[in-house]
Amino acid sequence: AIVVMAVSVRARWRDGADVMADGDRDTPGAADVPGSKSAQPAERAVAGNVAGEISLPNGRKPSRLGDDFHLRIASGLVIASLALAATWLGTFWFTALMVIGGVLLLFEWSRITRGTITDVALALSIAGLVAMVVAFDMAPAWFAPVPGWLIIGVVAAIALQALFGRDWRGGTFATFGLDYIALPVLAMLWLRADPSGGLLVTVFLFVVVWGTDIMGYVAGRYFGGPKLIPAISPKKTWSGAIGGTAVAVLGGAGIAMLEPEASFARMALLALVFSLISQAGDLFESAIKRRYDVKDSGALIPGHGGLLDRVDGLLFAAVGAALFALLAGPLDTPARTILVGSAG
What we know:
Mean pLDDT: 77
Structural class: mainly alpha
Oligomer: single chain
Distance between the termini: 42 Å
Shape: globular
């Protein structure tokens, strides 16, 4: 199944995912440019509508949420179902999901930063990711979370940097992908492996990040308003950021109902923090794509683009949650530290 998936992904990339575009996926297309050939039908529709409402040539009004909204929902449900199923089934299946997802993310990162998915640096990055996961699983609990994956990740990144150049496009950022993807993978594995609350904390992170992404998209599309950081992401708005954060806080606080010792205030505050970190991760990925003139990280997910386009916020949020647990409590119960604190 993994081989078939890999062949399918590579075929998708070859068939058109390598097309470069100005800006990130938020950049307006030709249809948004007044006077362009593709914009003429919409302009005529606007001019002919005395009420000032936009309508398509066939008389149907365009959806504020986008014509691909239903496709986005269907794809999102499939991804969420796979993630929740692997999380529920336990450590083995969750580890398999993280490794497969991490490998796919490394492919996408290589395509963005080096324009290829067949070089030696990518192969070494994949080997480094697998080695770190194996080291994490085999090392004692007190060793794995801190020195193990941090030291191995840093050393691997330095080695790749030394081997494959120091220039901006082919070196520094290209090799940074190993840490950018491997550290969140290991952070998620560390949190999920805690028997005192790993399942619930993993679901908590999913709820926070998904709530931020979904409501951020819906609120931004529906209400519009001032742009958040137009130089990085031209269509992200303050209304989307606020709406996504609000839903994340509500969803995160709701997780407290599943843990008798957790407080609503604590979970709401952590959800607020992790939601903001998630949005920072989203903006970071947008900045990377903008730097390399790439529209989407890939074409794996219909209606969404690449896998990195969908989990960019989770990458940052996972590391943020792991760092909080690392600083606030014992190494052997990171999930419980997040849920109830070190004294719980």
